[in-house]
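Take a look at the protein record below with the fold in mind.
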Amino acid sequence: MGEEDSERRSSQFAYLDLLTTALTEHEKNLNRLIEKLEKISNNLAKIAETSVSPAKPPLKVVSEREATPETLIYIRLKVRRSPEELKAILKSLKE
């Protein structure tokens, strides 16, 4: 019984380590994206201030489906674990 508990706790800690790694990488990616968006936003604000348009084009009415593009979420992780160990961690989550 003690050995099973030890293995279970080990896999739980391994999962927490994997989760921490994933969240850290995700946060780094988000910070980079936010910085890029801030630069773009500032550039657009400067462009909007300098350009004067005599007439505004008519607004196009779009459906909600057209306005919301399909989203693909992609996360790249730098994990120093073997694929077998990752499979064991994910399998322990199902239990």
The mean pLDDT is 78.
